[in-house]
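Reproducibility note. Readers wishing to regenerate the assembly model reported in the main text can use the exact inputs given here. Chain order matters: entities are listed in the order in which they were concatenated for prediction.
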Amino acid sequence: MTETFYEVLRRQGITRRSFLKFCSLTATSLGLGSAAAPRIAHALETKARTPVIWLHGLECTCCSESFIRSAHPLTKDVVLSMLSLDYDDTLMAAAGHQAEAIIEEVKKKYKGNYIVAVEGNPPLNEDGMFCIHGGRPFVEVLKETCADAKAIISWGACASYGCVQAAKPNPTRATPVHKVISGKPIINVPGCPPIAEVMTGVVTYMLTFDRIPELDRQGRPKMFYGQRIHDKCYRRGHFDAGQFAEAWDDEGSRKGHCLYKMGCKGPTTYNACSSMRWNGGVSWPVQSGHGCIGCSEEGFWDKGSFYDRVTDIKQFGVEANADTIGKAAAGTVGAAIAAHAAVSALARARNSNSHGQPEKEGENQ
Amino acid sequence: MAAYETQGFKLDNSGKRVVVDPVCRIEGHLRVEVNLDDKNVIRNAVSTGTMWRGLEVILKGRDPRDAWAFTERICGVCTGTHALTSVRAVEDALKIQIPENANSIRNIMQLNLQVHDHLVHFYHLHALDWVDVVSALKADPKATSALAQSISSWPLSSPGYFRDIQNRLKKFVESGQLGPFMNGYWGNPAYKLPPEANLMAVAHYLEALDFQKEIVKVHTIFGGKNPHPNWLVGGVPCAINMEGAGAVGAVNMERLNLVKSIIDRSIEFTEQVYIPDLIAIAKFYKGWLHGGGLSSKNVMSYGDIPDKANDYSAGNLLLPRGAIINGDLSKVHEIDLKDPEQIQEYVNHSWYKYPDESKGLHPFDGVTEPSFVLGPNTKGSKTNIKELDEGGKYSWIKAPRWRGHAMEVGPLARYIIGYAQNNPEFKEPVDALLKELDVPVTALFSTLGRTAARGLECQWAGRKMSYFFDKLMTNLKAGDLNTANIEKWEPSTWPKEAMGAGFTEAPRGALGHWIRIKDTKIDNYQCVVPTTWNGGPRDHKGQIGAFEAALMDTPVAKADEPLEILRTLHSFDPCLACSTHVMSPDGQEMTSVKVR
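Running the prediction on these inputs yields the following structure tokens for the assembly.
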């Protein structure tokens, strides 16, 4: 279980030849020239697994539960072979001061080279004591732990945006991670929870390419949050044809017609559900008959009932109206500049000769 | 208040204080403090919920049909059970009847949660309290194989299989990067398993991690995703279409076949891996029967899994309903969630305040006003607590009581009540297990009993999924495809004011939601959840809660390694995000919360 990255690849059926080819390509894409390939190969063959400290603030643990559902890669391979999950309150054997000692040890031993994954968020009211960790406000533990981190992953809607405890009137003043941590690359992976394979996909991307993925203006990886649910929805044909479910369990529902009139938030939601689907591709909310509730969008709890249509529309002209909605939302992302500096910050920090991938802005907009 | 007696326990906080914070391998944030006497026996226990989110305040003024989604986010581990409780509360308030198919599908989903949650709890949250991972390195793979094959027909049991697992484990340990196993209490004398049993358990830890993701696919089929599938007031959101055009867009024969296959595989894994492991482990720990706490005294279950739709009376519920008090198993008391005299919450030792704290309040009339005040004997400061003062307020959890009694809830409570009712579905498996382990019935009242009851219930729930699947198919064959009742979907059909209560048996125990609806919006919402019952603090009389009681009088092998404390706490499967919540009854804003 303690294989190096190379050994994991080999066990998954990658030949040595392919591995070396991968190293050459990586060297070239990083602008290092082919001479660097052996060095990269050596690093991947021998380097220690990246330590991850997984912290929990105000949350419900749905992100951890989603993470362990990953079908590819399997969670056991991620946790035991690809990274080193040194601290995670939900899974770790230790407790109390033995657990707390691990945070100190990782901070010292891997200064600047560990990842902090945050599930949940810190409340700021009551001097932070609405979430107590080791007798102290969680927000303090969060700040201290992030201080020497290489990068921070904000799991789920809680860490990214605040989620349900931050819904009005937000009695604890639950606050997203990026509003209390600065000066570090932060990747928002929203959703309540995010899809399991999106979570492991983000992590393995970072470990494989040694950089954070391209992000949109909201800090979300474009590769998984670049498109609307609606645009990839397999029921889109019914939307275009004006075929809708009008009430629960009606004829339209039984025929799998569009759920727009039932309040589906697919037209304003950016996520991978309609492409990747859930739980190993078995289904996803729309396929199972309930509209999208928009759980990967900021403030989705405060945008009216989940059964209100995203706008008042007539049956005809739906396309125009829905696209107007879509364009408005897409505009936000289209106008956004990917945090390119942040994208390549990791690679740069490690090797002053490297620079990031060429810009690929606008492809999805 | 150095020493006093309550509920048959002698509390004495004069000895060495040991603090465990955070308690890991649970949902949410929990702290526990104990005092040890000079023989390292626990003589005082203090359980503290260390988080508060205020979800019920947030629900005020919202559409009752949305409440399931908010309350579902109380907990992502027991995902779905709050949502089900919520739609039941709304349906009770608005007098909505659901179709039989919806009842069967809801039951399959709820039982599916029980199976998944119990399995993950046993292997991933609890096993490391019994299993020494490092000791597995010393195991003989051949002997491990012989052990595995002697207790089960599960095919992954060859010497080569266990040798491979051991080799991977060996390389893992030698790397020095121990990941989640770092700083565990390996080698602690409280571990009792031989190396072979440890190796077998480590192999199954990994297998269970792979398999658990399959179980939840039942939620994905009916609810679209897991965690946090979708639910519906009035039924279930998935439509059924067995033969018409467009059937591929609904629940159809292929989807149902997938559900059936997952149910069968879940039963197989539970019966061939989980139960044999549980028995094998229990045989080595049957001399360690600490941790009974309140289980031999006061236990409670609301009951769940209605056989026929819309009948929530005890006779129609397949999980037992009732309360046992003062250890009198001859009398199972009836429970009424709406009776103001039965369920009441106290805040004398919780970080909330009441106008009159000498009285408890029923959830329909509950008051929650946060008041983060520490007792005078607290050590440390307000934002750097070293030791809490249990004489003052010390937890974000309230103290609920049933007719004034602290109660234990959960799988063990359900099995004790089923046993007391002579219900063969619960009594027979318990008697068989006791016989196999050669222990008396009183052995049930222990940490091990709690863990065993959970395993038996996992097996029961798997078989009951099968029962409701058959029931669903029978109904479909009879031509009934209905999954939702929309007569009262539109708020214009609702009365001006309504109130209702909904309940389930969550994996961790009795769960209730209480709702008041006014002018089509939520006027008041309150939840009393399993870990509020189990993990709550002392009340106005100084009575301790179930966690605290269970820790009492347990000897600890090494004071600086809280293995026995974790073992007993984990046997409850604590869920702290669930237990800490709040409501403002008359809808007032939370004026006492500081807003900066």
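We highlight two features of this model. Chain B touches chain A through 115 residues (CB under 8 Å). The longest strand of chain B covers residues 497-506.
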